[in-house]
Structures are given as structure tokens and as C-alpha cells.
Amino acid sequence: MNLDDALALTQRFPEDKTVPEKLADAIKKSSGYEKKMLIKLGEGVILDATTKEERKLVQKFLMS
Question: How far apart, in whole angstroms, are the C-alpha atoms of residue 6 and residue 37?
């Protein structure tokens, strides 16, 4: 997943509940600058989580 795709993906959260898992997979498969930028996008997803369900999702996939 390139950074443009990742940005488009993160903009679908919280409506699309699969975003945290997909982003976590992309982070695991990346390295260097791309990984750093994907992590920053993940931080934005964490901030967008407002309900208990959303917080559980981001905690499971992006904070472990």
C-alpha cells in the first residue's frame, strides 16, 4: 500500500471499521520513510476513534 492509498483508507475511518487492521498490516509490511509516515497516519486514526468500539479496534491493531 502506498502513502496515497493509505491516506485515502484512513479517511474512511470510523465509518469503515476495517481501517485499523488494514493500516496495521501495511505498517508491518513497510520500512523506512514509508513506515514512519504510515505510523503517523495510524496516530490520526487513533485520534479519530471516539466510541468505545472504535477505541477497542485501534487499540487491538495499532497500539499493540
Answer: 10
Rounded to whole angstroms, the Cα distance separating 37 from 31 reads 10
Q: Domains of the chain: which residue ranges? A: 3-62
Counting every residue written for the chain, the total comes to 64
Its pTM stands at 0.93
| Radius of gyration of the chain from its Cα atoms, rounded to whole angstroms | 11
How many Å apart are CA 41 and CA 26, to the nearest integer? 11
Residues 26-58 pLDDT 10s: 999 999 999 999 999 999 999 999 999 999 999
